[in-house]
Amino acid sequence: MRYIIFLLLTCTIAVAQNPIIDSLRNQLTKLPVDTNRVKTMHELATNLWWNGYDSLARQTLYQAMRMAKQINYSSGEIRARLAQARIEADYLSDTKSAHAQLDTAQQMAIAIHDLSLQGQVLLRRAQLYENIMEKLPEARSLLDKSLQKFQQAHDRQWEAQTYNELAIMKMGEGNYVAAINLWLNARRLQESIHDWKGLRSTLPNLGMVYIKLKRYDEAMACFTEAEKVADRLNDNLVRTFILSRKAEILEKEGKYALALESYMGEVKAYLNPYQPSHLARAYGAVGRIYIQLKQYDKALEYSQLAQSTYRKTVEKTREALEHNAQANFGKIYLALKQYDRVVPYAQAGLEWTKDVKEMRPERTEYVRQLAEAYDHLGQPAKALHYFKWYKAEADTMLNEEAMQKATVASMTYDFEKKQQGVRLKQAQQEARIQLLENDKLEQTRNLLIVLLLLVAGILSFVFWNNRRLRVRNEELSEKNAEIEAALYRGQTLERKRVASELHDSVAAKVSALKWRFEAFDTSQFDADQHREHARLLDHMGEVYEDIRAISHNLMPEILEKQGLQAALIKLTDTLKVQNKTRFLLEVEKSGEDVRGKTAYELYTITLELVNNILKHAKARQADISLARQNGFLMLTVQDDGQGMPAGKNQDGFGTLNIKSRLERLGGTYLVSSPAEGGTCINVQIPIAA
């Protein structure tokens, strides 16, 4: 029986996707363009974000914004902009864009006199500031203002969410009692209105602060409740967060091997789908465990991964420290007795945390590292200075923690006592329901056993058949890859041959024909004949130039030898000389290693878009950019011309050609009209292509 149940679960997991996401996508196919469709798109984007598909979530929110604007649904557009800013708060890679979204949302919320939406704008902006040291006071002020807005609007859902954010800041200050009190307030509100989405963050955070106070039983109780909510919402983000917190408990209990196994599971979860901000912290935790295991080479490797992943995530214009990695470096070099290397890391961390009350634990660790390092470096005066500083910080933390533990114990007892009354009523209701169900269960038990055996047999056959089909599919995939590679080689050779024929034969013949026309004796021609002769010479020159351009574009030599980036540079240099439209290129070394099929397809798409600009846009300037972002290669072509005419058919031959090429690369594209005018086309393909 155990084997049958295991097989049933295994097969179910193997064939199931995400039922909530699939259900929402199915709903979208049936809904007309109205407010319900916008709400469903927002719900879909939220679930995509929870499951780590941030790029898809952003695309869905952009579509929801455009549709809401189209049907004049202001609150729907505002919520989509707020969701965009919330996703960005996890990455801090484009806060300028996030603040622009919030500025627009704020103006719209004020215009429709919606206090709740105004409060949400303030809260989302505070979330953008929470990880920036100099912006923490402003974040606290914004949260206080947002709380007032929600209380005026009698919006208990968002009032609870604000308590959650305020509690996070209190925990950062080391004020665990205040944090727990705020989270308990949030929990009571959310449970009273059955706000499962709010509880998905409140319960894990409450468990996290219990860990800080070493109250592991209360922490595990919160995580158990949070797992139920995550299962209800099918939320992988919360499941992985809880996995990390359980690993933290194992770490504090000295069970380092088990903790390492859990942290590595967290790393795997954040690698696919790729979530760099969470991944950086997971790498730091793995490095911390390897320090405890005295495997300092691996500790250094994962700490460096944490630092590089974090710095790739945040904006390049703003320096930032990932303290999970920064504190690790000092510990590693202390253990390796490389004391001179400890000082710069600890000093950098101390500079960031100095006078920031939310980072007292981190500051205390950096001061401890400096005291120990200077002691071994033979600088007793500095060592004594930092030791006294460390002692003062540590004693303060210890005293505060002892007082808070006693307060929390009493507070937890009162809360649990109230919860017991609620649970008792729930238990009585469940007992009555259970009595009614027992009779039916007795009658259906035998039938279920038979059906279970039958299902197990069917699933066993399906599992075996799927395995056989998977093997065949893998063989077909390998053969398809070989065929595709051979086809591309053949196409490349044929393009080279055709280009050579056009250049060496057809172009030469047209050139010779032009020379013959130029050699005509025109002395006997009248005025009309002179004009016609000149017109023919111009046409032949245009034909000759077109043939040369076509032969070059079929397979540019520079594209094959130096890659996409060099080909685009040469293309824009040529366009600047030959056309009235000024073309600018920005690549940042994004296309140096893009070659072969991907390079050719993207180059051809660029030619198609450039040709459209030259023919139709009447633009003074066009910008071409190529960049890498979140696992995608992004090509953007934007002009300041007359824009796309309303009602124009976008399924012409050129558009179909672009779609066909992107399908082969597994990419997508989006056409938009910037506020300042013109047309912007964004093309993105996965870097794996």
TrEMBL record:
<dbReference type="GO" id="GO:0016020">
    <property type="term" value="C:membrane"/>
</dbReference>
<keyword id="KW-0808">Transferase</keyword>
<dbReference type="InterPro" id="IPR005467">
    <property type="entry name" value="His_kinase_dom"/>
</dbReference>
<dbReference type="InterPro" id="IPR003594">
    <property type="entry name" value="HATPase_dom"/>
</dbReference>
<dbReference type="GO" id="GO:0005524">
    <property type="term" value="F:ATP binding"/>
</dbReference>
<dbReference type="Pfam" id="PF13181">
    <property type="entry name" value="TPR_8"/>
</dbReference>
<dbReference type="GO" id="GO:0000155">
    <property type="term" value="F:phosphorelay sensor kinase activity"/>
</dbReference>
<keyword id="KW-0418">Kinase</keyword>
<feature type="signal peptide">
    <location>
        <begin position="1"/>
        <end position="16"/>
    </location>
</feature>
<dbReference type="InterPro" id="IPR050482">
    <property type="entry name" value="Sensor_HK_TwoCompSys"/>
</dbReference>
<dbReference type="GO" id="GO:0046983">
    <property type="term" value="F:protein dimerization activity"/>
</dbReference>
<keyword id="KW-0812">Transmembrane</keyword>
<feature type="transmembrane region" description="Helical">
    <location>
        <begin position="447"/>
        <end position="464"/>
    </location>
</feature>
<feature type="coiled-coil region">
    <location>
        <begin position="424"/>
        <end position="486"/>
    </location>
</feature>
<keyword id="KW-0547">Nucleotide-binding</keyword>
<keyword id="KW-0067">ATP-binding</keyword>
<keyword id="KW-0802">TPR repeat</keyword>
<keyword id="KW-0472">Membrane</keyword>
<keyword id="KW-1133">Transmembrane helix</keyword>
<protein>
    <recommendedName>
        <fullName>histidine kinase</fullName>
        <ecNumber>2.7.13.3</ecNumber>
    </recommendedName>
</protein>
<feature type="repeat" description="TPR">
    <location>
        <begin position="280"/>
        <end position="313"/>
    </location>
</feature>
<feature type="domain" description="Histidine kinase">
    <location>
        <begin position="601"/>
        <end position="689"/>
    </location>
</feature>
<dbReference type="Pfam" id="PF02518">
    <property type="entry name" value="HATPase_c"/>
</dbReference>
<keyword id="KW-0732">Signal</keyword>
<keyword id="KW-0597">Phosphoprotein</keyword>
<feature type="repeat" description="TPR">
    <location>
        <begin position="200"/>
        <end position="233"/>
    </location>
</feature>
<dbReference type="InterPro" id="IPR036890">
    <property type="entry name" value="HATPase_C_sf"/>
</dbReference>
<dbReference type="InterPro" id="IPR019734">
    <property type="entry name" value="TPR_rpt"/>
</dbReference>
<keyword id="KW-0902">Two-component regulatory system</keyword>
<keyword id="KW-0175">Coiled coil</keyword>
<dbReference type="InterPro" id="IPR011712">
    <property type="entry name" value="Sig_transdc_His_kin_sub3_dim/P"/>
</dbReference>
<dbReference type="Pfam" id="PF07730">
    <property type="entry name" value="HisKA_3"/>
</dbReference>
<dbReference type="Pfam" id="PF13424">
    <property type="entry name" value="TPR_12"/>
</dbReference>
<dbReference type="InterPro" id="IPR011990">
    <property type="entry name" value="TPR-like_helical_dom_sf"/>
</dbReference>
